[in-house]
Amino acid sequence: MTVSQPKHRKITRLIQHHWNSRADRFDEETVHGVHSEAQKRAWLDVLARVAGAPPRQVLDVGCGTGVLTILLAELGHRVTGIDLAPQMLDRARQKTRDAGLAVQLRMENAAEISDPDGSYDLVVARHVVWTLPDPAGAVREWLRVLRPDGRVAIIEGHWSADRPMAEPRSLRRALAAFARVAARAVFYSVRPTQWGAVRERLQARMYQKAHTQLPFYGGPSADRLRSFLEDQGLRSVHIEPLMLPELWGEVPQHPRYLVVGRRERA
Q1: How are beta strands 146-157 and 104-107 bridged, if at all?
Q2: Confidence band (pLDDT; 50, 70, 90) for 7?
Q3: Rounded to an integer, what distance in angstroms lies between the CA atom of residue 222 and that of residue 128?
Q4: How far apart are the C-alpha atoms of 86 and 72, rounded to whole Å?
Q5: Is the model's pLDDT at 76 over the cut of 90?
Q6: Top-confidence residue, 136 or 3
Q7: Which of these, 113, 144, 146, 251, has the minimum number of CB atoms within 10 Å of its CB?
Q8: Mean pLDDT lowest for which of 19-28, 100-109, 145-154, 227-236?
């Protein structure tokens, strides 16, 4: 859920605001949280295959409320979770405390990671790639923090081939529109209790416009993501469908999958 270059700073702030606003309710959504023992066992089976025998050093990028972070820690791995949204991380910290697990959680950019080169055996990211304005830069950073022969495991879905608008307006124009509406709201003496709702609607509108700057908006197809990862230098890239209803708490309505690739030895 994060980016690095200065040209992406404004969209990063919108993305951060969006995921912060969803933190309190995020785990309530069946496809995001873990709501049954069957769902938990299904995810543990997937992650055990991906991570291998513990203990491994694992980085959970865009960890959100810590769903994968907690499951990987329960499997015996040493897990670090990073996310740009502080309220998501607050939820993750509370959940890890409740579970009695020792994990590292940091507010950090997915494309600007503070760890030194070769820190991890595995980098995982669930529903993150589609949110990135610069996915290539992020993947390069994930490879940097991987040890030789380490792996990247990405869980994604492909739910739409459509862009939100045929001709996107620039973020500068969206921000200008926000300023105009804010000025009108002040002129017409919008009460403080109403201003919060106005601001949230405007932020949501701006975030929708920002989608046009996300190369993988709507989720990439599995084949497209595999080709993209190979272009970034990953090898032995393979795809595993994730269509079991037990994983999502419902029958998936769109393709869901896992892509795993390996960093080459130097």
Answers
A1: unpaired
A2: low
A3: 14
A4: 21
A5: yes
A6: 136
A7: 251
A8: 19-28
β-bridge mates for residue 61, sequence order: 82, 125
What is the rounded distance in angstroms from the CA atom of residue 249 to the CA atom of residue 236? 30
CATH of 6-161+218-262, one of 3.40.50.150, 3.40.50.300, 3.40.630.90, 3.40.190.10: 3.40.50.150
Query: What are the respective helix, strand and coil percentages of the chain, to the nearest 5?
Result: 45, 20, 35
Domain extent listing, the chain: 6-161+218-262, 171-208
Is 205's pLDDT higher than 80? no
H, E, C per residue of 145-192: CEEEEEEEEEEEECCCCCCCCCCCCCHHHHHHHHHHHHHHHHHCCCCH
- CA torsion through residues 98, 100, 106, 109, sign: negative
204: pLDDT confidence band, cut at 50, 70 and 90? low
Tell me how far apart the alpha carbons of residues 106 and 85 are, in angstroms, rounded to a whole number.
10
- Across 132-144, b (16+ Cβ under 10 Å) vs e yields bbbbebbbebbbe
Q: What is the mean pLDDT of residues 202-228?
A: 80
- Are 112 and 133 a contacting pair, CB within 8 Å? no
Show Cβ contacts of residue 112 under 8 Å, excluding neighbours closer than 6 positions. 2, 4, 141
Residue 148: both structure tokens together: 């030789």
Which among 164, 216, 213 is positioned nearest to 8, based on CA atoms? 213
Q: Dump pLDDT digits (tens) for 115-130.
A: 999 999 999 999 999 9
Q: pLDDT per residue over 44-55, tens digit each?
A: 999 999 999 999
